[in-house]
Design brief:
Elements (H helix, E strand, L loop, with lengths): L1 E3 L5 E3 L10 H8 L3 H8 L5 E2 L8 H13 L6 H5 L35 H6 L13 H4 L9 E6 L5 E4 H7 L3 E8 L4 E11 H8 L7 E6 L19 E5 H5 L4 E6 L2 E2 L9 E3 L12 E7 L6 H5 L23 E4 L6 E2 L7 H4 L13
Bound molecules: ligand MTE.
Length: 360
């Protein structure tokens, strides 16, 4: 992600994104790939998660409280300790305490999930830092509990849910999705969560509701990046109501069966896998049903660069780099970007008749 700051200076955070392929490479990558054919023949499957496979939130809280009281470790360092053979010096977990991170997960195209370590140590979370590797350490003292999410606006049945209510009420599923950042890198992430549609149905949007607006928590004392005046905090995002109701759109409460790690947006974040990652807003406290297209943080700072729709589209270059290819974290070669991030079969019907280059 890079930003043309108020001072007219570019703050460039992702150098790989500027290393762009040649025009020939771009054209070659637009050809229909085996992968795209595979998607057309392979319906995306969601996998319900057995509750025994998810660490209950109550256990997570008591575990955190225990560790805190014992003065051993707090916050995301706990999760960092989950990754194999790393940061042994940061913490000493009692034997048998470290959660087991399963291996061998893959997406429906057969690509392996990124490691827990990759997913929790290379993050865009500007509330903490614009440096991806600084987010994990800076977010370790962020408190994801207690937590409430207010769902309000043009609804018949407004609600304020505690995070525990959401986990109890809505069955958690595993969804292994590709996350494609607008900066042209990607990962495969095994989220746990539930369809946003289930929550929206419960609050009963009125017939005037056309869009959904999301807001991240505002806690500048815990989130040092929120003191950066170049951004209009709190982070806001939005979806059209039909996008929000689509089955692929989830509220994620964890990954790899663990409660959501702080650097990934604890305790609850949006995941919209066919859109650039910045649409997947983290640490949500408000969900509002509205009549007009809401403003969003990135569209406000860079309207020519970050559109409201932001569907992954290899044919619509970012003004400063191509989107025709991407770098999967952990791989050396670039790979072609897939239309709608590989979810075209499921979501293309939402945009029939729309010019997706104009409506970027
Ligand atoms: N949400 C908030 N509140 N703040 C952010 O800076 N960054 C976005 C998105 N959600 C961001 C956010 C971007 S640019 C990306 S690519 C994804 O989160 C990254 O998610 P990850 O760190 O879990 O991979």
């Amino acid at each position: 992600m890079s930003l043309r700051g108020a001072a007219g200076r570019d703050v460039n955070v992702e150098t790989e994104a500027t290393k762009q392929p040649s025009i020939d490479e771009e054209i070659a990558s637009l050809a229909l790939t085996d992968k795209e054919e595979l998607i057309m023949n392979n319906k995306y499957k969601s996998v319900p998660v057995k509750s025994s496979e998810i660490t209950p939130y109550s256990q997570y809280l008591s575990r955190r409280d225990f560790l805190k009281a014992a003065g051993i470790v707090t916050g995301s360092a706990l999760f960092a300790a989950c990754a194999p053979a790393q940061r042994a010096t940061e913490t000493t977990l009692p034997e048998g305490e470290a959660p087991v991170i399963p291996t061998g997960k893959m997406d429906e195209l057969g690509d392996p999930a990124n490691s827990f370590e990759d997913i929790t140590n290379y993050n865009n979370y500007y509330e903490f830092s614009v440096d991806k590797e600084a987010v994990n350490p800076l977010s370790k003292d962020f408190a994801p509990a207690p937590w409430t999410v207010e769902v309000h606006g043009l609804v018949n049945n407004p609600q304020t849910y505690g995070i525990e209510d959401l986990l109890r009420k809505f069955p958690q599923e595993e969804r292994i999705y590709r996350l494609r950042c607008v900066e042209a890198w990607s990962m495969v992430i095994p989220w746990t969560g539930f369809p946003l549609a289930s929550l929206l149905q419960e609050v009963e949007p009125t017939s005037d509701a056309k869009f959904v607006r999301f807001e991240t928590v505002y806690r500048p004392e815990e989130m040092p990046g929120q003191k950066n005046p170049l951004f209009p905090w709190p982070y806001q995002e939005g979806l059209r109501l039909d996008e929000a109701m689509h089955d692929l759109t989830i509220l994620a409460t964890g990954l790899y069966g663990q409660p959501m790690p702080n650097p990934n947006g604890a305790p609850i974040r949006l995941v919209v896998p066919w859109k650039y990652g910045f649409k997947s807003i983290k640490s949500i406290v408000k969900i509002e049903l509205v009549a007009e297209q809401p403003s969003t943080l990135w569209n406000t700072v860079g309207p020519g660069e970050y559109g409201f729709y932001s569907n992954v589209n290899p044919e619509r270059s970012h003004p400063r780099w191509s989107q025709a290819s991407e770098r999967r974290i952990g791989e050396f070669d670039r790979r072609p970007t897939l239309m709608f991030n590989g979810y075209a079969e499921q979501v293309a019907s939402l945009y029939v008749g729309m010019d997706l280059v104009e409506n970027y």
